Amino acid sequence: MTDLDENPFNTTDPIFKQKQILKKDEMPDKIFHRDDEIQQYTIALEDIIVGHDPNNVFIYGPTGVGKTAVTLWMRNKLKEKAAETGVPLNVVGPINCRNYKSAYALATALVNDFRPPDDQLPNSGYSTDKVFDFLYQEIENAGGNVLIILDEIDNIPPDARNDFLYELPRAEANENTPITDAKIGLIGISNDLKFVDVLEPKVKSTLGEREIKFGPYNANELNDILEYYADMAFKDGVLEKDVIPLAAAFSAQERGDVRQGKRILQKAGELARMDGKEVVTSEHTHEATETVETDEILDYFEQDLTSHQAMTYLAAALAVIEPKQEATTKRIYKLYSSVAESVVSRVKSERKIYEFLDQLSMQGLVRSAEQNLGREGGRRYVYDITDDPRDIIEAARKSSYNNAVPSNVDEMLAYYLEEEASEYEAPDISDQHQENLWKFT
Length: 441
Ligand SMILES: Nc1ncnc2c1ncn2[C@@H]1O[C@H](COP(=O)(O)OP(=O)(O)OP(=O)(O)O)[C@@H](O)[C@H]1O
Ligand SMILES: [Mg+2]
What we know:
The chain is of the alpha/beta class. It has 17 helices and seven strands. Involved in regulation of DNA replication.
């Protein structure tokens, strides 16, 4: 019975002082364990300050290891020093390529970064070439050193790779552009190591003039970093002493990623609150680590991916766990079609599936391997998923694609994981009824 005269809301939080510290990627006051990277970065950018031409710099490493945070700090310090010493410098960005779906959109964003608010380019109306002309003109007008920072370049629209990562940094040497005085430097940041492999060699060598690798953090490093955030986020004395080391050890084992560590702490704190406790225990932390992976994948389903990418991702996971079948593009398309039908969404053509898989691969969610078909010739692609299929299925179930999860998926998962408890019998692939293998709800 609930007495409706009572107000159920608490006015104070016994656990968190500032929860948003754990939720958001805000610029920290301190950066831990990146002294070597900062030194290399400084040397690469210092040329501008001492009067040389800017270098192109390529920053790479897995997700959540400080690439953006360190870049923001370096940018601010560089601007400060340039202003102090009278070195002409214009910095554009970081602009996150993930937010732009075409070369046109990205070029427009760059132009508008130079321009005042009352002189912005519209989102359509010109040719892409024309927008590039505007961009070159803005760069020339700015003059001096122009440093352009593009973040998450693995998400750069495929039609924009050459223009931004090759033509743009060389525009000053290109006679067809109006640029004569300005000196361009490009900083490109990527968390997909395979991204570099797909670039043409000339693009690779232009962008990779200076390369700085940000490796994953180990458990000790993560421990220091998480302590710093926990201090700001939690009330004094609410964390049992094992909580931070456990979160650090778990994240170090997974990816060496600060964001994940912060998420575990947040979740552990929330679990403690739900329990009505005033301390966060190691049990809460263990429990938090169990759902953190699923929660991350859920974010992909609900926020980061378009609906067709999300359905392709689910289809790829299903194709991977499906017994006695390889996850070929063709098979993934078939499963994608069933998934799309069951969420009553328009099914895209088979041609599009290549694009979706390519985008998922850019996000590091799927991996492809090329197979030669031997004497008959030809090749085909077989896919794998990078996360645990149990986590993907679990996340899909919590997502708006819940209806598209086949009813017999657990049996297949059990079979895939070779659990003895499985009574599932894998169908014979020579049987024509493969399409009926999945019972979609
Ligand atoms: N060495 C560090 N010291 C303090 N905070 C850090 C450090 N490394 C990362 N962080 C924090 O972790 C979060 C993620 O870092 P950041 O955004 O820089 O990751 P990233 O490498 O750019 O990841 P992605 O490739 O996903 O963009 C941010 O809140 C950042 O401030
Ligand atoms: Mg980043």
